TrEMBL record:
Broad EC category: ligase
KW ATP-binding (keyword) present: yes
Organism: uncultured Thermomicrobiales bacterium
Catalytic activity: UDP-N-acetyl-alpha-D-muramate + L-alanine + ATP = UDP-N-acetyl-alpha-D-muramoyl-L-alanine + ADP + phosphate + H(+)
Protein name, as recorded: UDP-N-acetylmuramate--L-alanine ligase
GO biological process, one term: cell wall organization
Length: 417
């Protein structure tokens, strides 16, 4: 093993081929060119960063310039704005995001030239499944929880590889290659991407109907989650929130609803509900007590506000315990955790106005963020400046969005993005 100029481990064979489950393709040798279409996405940019550190010549394209494409270019990755067939010329592997259409000129050119072309999720699965994946899924909270879990594993000396759907403030990146056996990965349900993963540990934070363009009904989405959890490796663990009706339904289906649980995989509940294996006790913004099977194992204090983050932290701590990390050590990591980009991110103050940026794009997330603002800034006037995201979600959840935004004192509504 060698190291690059930033001290990151670099291996000519980062993925042991014998460890891959049912591979449909393989990575070319280090030094080969990998071209990524839609490289400005949070998931594709994460892959680009890790592949570059592994010694690949990474290039990419995106429809529009952004902070992400600018950051990738500054890191030495060749980025072209706009999609042209010639951009993919000479690539040994083409990777494309779920947003890329089948008539994209780069994808069409690669296929015509016989260049292997795979979705981002397939490549992420190839990388993660070769090691011990710790996968965090859920409608809300998966980015924060996976970031917390990656931080805990890193502080414990496990040197994990991680792929997170947001920038970790403490690392300044959304992905990092590691030399250890663990891969912490945000498991995205969109486009059924998480079905490419075979986790050692799977966390589900909550389940609500989302992405109606992919899942017309709640039942269709729940079926995908059941399929995802059925892929947990023998001897692994499934961690489900005890405070979420969607997770209750999953637990019933897996353990007692006619769907056989993964062979030898433990089903573990966490949250505030009585009977959960991992629980937190205590209210308000101060320290809460973490209990495991009724015994206190740690005191937990967070820099990031909100009850939702206390539950996210409990999920990360419980998942870390499944790979041998002491709960008290995990709690110490969480106490220093600086959060992730666009999740209650403090942008600054002007006069007596505090500006917070949050990617809340589902009614539950909007309501949760507004409650966190009340907790963090008691007595302050709360303005919500909200831009709905996607027409399909906005149409499906119009009433729920209105109810969630009622938690603000004033609302400014922007056009749908």
């Amino acid at each position: 093993m060698t190291h690059d100029e930033q001290g990151v481990p670099r291996s000519s064979s980062p993925i042991p081929q014998s460890a891959i489950r049912n591979p449909q393709f393989s990575l070319p040798p280090a030094g080969s060119r990998i071209h990524i279409v839609g490289i400005g996405g949070i998931g594709t940019s994460a892959l680009a960063r890790v592949l570059r550190h592994w010694g690949y010549a990474v290039s990419g394209s995106d429809a529009a310039a952004s902070d992400v494409t600018a950051a990738l270019a500054a890191e030495g990755i060749a980025v072209v704005i706009g999609h042209r067939a010639e951009s993919a010329a000479g690539a040994d592997l083409l990777v494309y995001s779920a947003a890329v259409r089948g008539d994209n000129p780069e994808l069409v050119a690669a296929q015509a030239a016989g260049v292997p072309a795979v979705k981002r999720a397939a490549l992420l699965g190839l990388i993660a499944n070769a090691r011990s994946p710790l996968a965090v899924a859920g409608t809300h909270g998966k980015s924060t929880t996976s970031a917390m879990l990656a931080t805990i594993c890193d502080d414990a000396g496990r040197d994990p590889t991680f792929f997170v759907g947001a920038i970790l403030q403490d690392y300044g990146t959304n992905a990092r290659p590691g030399g250890g056996d663990l891969v912490v990965v945000e498991a995205d349900e969109y486009d059924r991407s998480f079905l490419q993963l075979w986790p050692q540990v799977a966390v589900v934070t909550n389940v609500e109907h989302d992405h109606p363009d992919i899942y017309p009904t709640y039942g269709a989405m729940e079926d995908a989650y059941v399929e995802f959890l059925a892929q947990v490796r023998p001897g692994g663990a499934i961690l489900l929130s005890s405070d979420d009706p969607g997770c209750d339904r999953l637990a019933l289906r897996i353990a007692g609803g006619g769907v056989a649980p993964p062979r030898g995989a433990a089903i573990i509940r966490y949250g505030r509900a009585a009977g959960a294996a991992w629980r937190i006790e205590g209210e308000g913004a101060g320290a809460v007590t973490v209990l495991h099977d009724g015994a206190a194992v740690a005191e937990l204090t967070l820099r990031v506000p909100g009850e939702h983050n206390r539950r996210n932290a409990l999920a990360a701590l419980a998942a870390a315990s499944q790979v041998g990390i002491d709960p008290a050590a995990a709690a110490a990591s969480l106490a220093a955790f600086g959060g992730i980009g666009r999740r209650f991110e403090l942008k600054g103050e002007v006069g007596q106005v505090t500006v917070v940026d949050d990617y809340a794009h589902h009614p539950t997330e909007v309501a949760t963020t507004l409650r966190a603002a009340r907790e963090r800034f008691p007595g302050r006037l709360i303005w919500a400046v909200f831009q709905p995201h996607t027409f399909s979600r906005t149409k499906l959840l119009t009433r729920e969005f209105a109810e969630a935004l009622a938690g603000a004192d004033r609302v400014v509504l922007l056009d749908i993005y």
